[in-house]
Amino acid sequence: ERRQRGLPILKSQTLSVCSTTLWVGQLDKKTQQSDVMSLLEEFGQIDSINMIPPRGCAYIVMVHRQDAYTALKKLSRGSYKVNQKPVKIAWALNKGIKPAHKKFWDVEQGVTYIPWGKVKVDELETFKEGGILDLETLNPEWNIARDYNNQAAVNGPTEMVPDVTVAAHVQVMLMQSLNTLFLISNVLVY
């Protein structure tokens, strides 16, 4: 199921910051942003395109990880062209990853695997620029998983299923609270 959602393999005690940014290279220097957009828009919503004509490449941030994954898989298999010129495509490191964490980047998976001990909780929000946090890889001690489940990411909704355990726990607590209120109201009536 993770693979279908475009998510990489899990690593123990490691935060996965999954890129939604793609690099498209070997572009003709006259390539326009609209040319790149027409190549990728069929795969999903595009957040931004950063053209770098002197280098013949562009960085495209997709709104959803799954869309970026699908585009990469399809476009890397064929000989796709922009302006009659074959292009290359690969994962790109998302902007939210700071220099200290670049050594954890895995270009094949399109993910930065950051050991929990190297993560500062107040940096989590910045990691999402051009990527998403894999909620299954958040350290439970950070006590923030449910905040991210209820909050939109910089590039659209966080792409994880809600934490069923948290939802069930909240439901049980709510039922206990209602039972307690019911008992108190019965005591007050008598």
Radius of gyration: 21 Å
Distance linking N and C termini: 55 Å
CATH class of the domain at 19-133: Alpha Beta
At the third CATH level, what is the topology name of the domain at 19-133?
Alpha-Beta Plaits
Helix content: 25-40%
Q: Architecture of the domain at 19-133, according to CATH?
A: 2-Layer Sandwich
| Beta-strand segment tally | 12
- Give the count of helical stretches: 5
Q: Which term fits the overall shape?
A: elongated
**Low-pLDDT residue intervals, each spanning 5 or more residues:** 149-190
SSE run: EEHEEHEEEEEHEHEEH
Order of strands side by side in the largest beta sheet? 8-9-1-10
Q: Structural class of the secondary structure composition?
A: alpha+beta
Query: Largest sheet at a glance?
Result: 4 strands, antiparallel
Describe this structure in words.
- With 190 residues, this protein is of the alpha+beta class.
- It has a domain at 19-133: Alpha-Beta Plaits (2-Layer Sandwich), CATH 3.30.70.330.
- It is built from five helices and twelve strands.
- The strands form four sheets. Strands 8-9-1-10 form a four-stranded antiparallel sheet, with no helix packed on it. Strands 3-4-2-7 form a four-stranded antiparallel sheet, with helices on one face. It has a two-stranded antiparallel sheet with strand order 5-6.
- The longest helix is centred in the last third of the chain and has 26 residues, at 164-189.
